[in-house]
Amino acid sequence: MTPIRFEEEKAVRDDAVKRRLIDIRKAQVEFNNLNQRFTGSFDTLIYFVRTAQIPIVMKKGELTDAQLEKGLTEAKALELTPEDAPKYGIEDYELFRASFIRDTSFVSVLESVFGKGFPIDSIAYVPFTNNARFEMEASMYLSTSGIKTPLFEARVPFSVYLQGLDEQEIHNLIDARRTQGKYEGLKVGDITSPNNNSGNWE
Fold first, then answer.
1. Which of 1, 5, 155, 177 has a CA positioned 20 to 30 A from the CA of residue 116?
2. By the 8 A CB rule, do 2 and 16 touch?
3. Cβ count near 42 (within 10 Å)
């Protein structure tokens, strides 16, 4: 029964760790969107999520195919004058202005990405451990063509979050990963080459 019990408990712990790694990835993606880089610091990442704001554009109204064919773009539509309106087949300028709106407002990263009240301080800590922290790094990858790509990696070894379970089963799991040349735990991202920030279970 030992392997069965181990697999059942491992599945529960895997699930919790994966969810936490996905939360770290969400925060890192927003950080990169605003800073064009990732961070290797949880303090920096948590402070960012708690304080940063991102723009949300509220859109009302769409341009018709005929208007687009005549060269009207969203940017031009927002600057449109009554004199220019007929050029784009707009007969009622006031009605068009009232029905075509682009309004930018700012919302906190915490609320928009995670929801109000989300315990953001907890993302640094590995579930089922005594406050062990995830390992996290950030780097800049330089391709052979000279293009820079920001990278990050957050990870935790099996030996950390499976602690307390059957030691022989943990050893077998680690040994199998080592033989395959794979990371002996769960992680998102990759510090050495771009992988679209995917998890090693995805």
1. 155
2. no
3. 18
Q: Indicate whether this model's pTM tops 0.85.
A: no
What is the tens place of the pLDDT at every residue in 86-139? 989 898 999 998 898 888 888 899 998 999 899 999 999 999 999 999 999 999
Domain ranges of the chain: 2-50+115-189, 62-99
State the Cα angle at 182 between 131 and 135, rounded to 5°.
Answer: 25
Q: Are 140 and 148 in contact (CB under 8 A)?
A: yes
Supply 186's token pair. 């769960």
By CB neighbour count within 10 A (0-12 exposed, 13-18 middle, 19+ buried), where does 125 fall? middle
Other residues' Cβ atoms within 10 Å of the Cβ of residue 152: 24
DSSP line for 99-143: H-EEEEEEEEHIIIII-TT--GGGGGBPTTSSSPBPEEEEEEEE-
Pull the structure tokens for residue 45. 């990442």
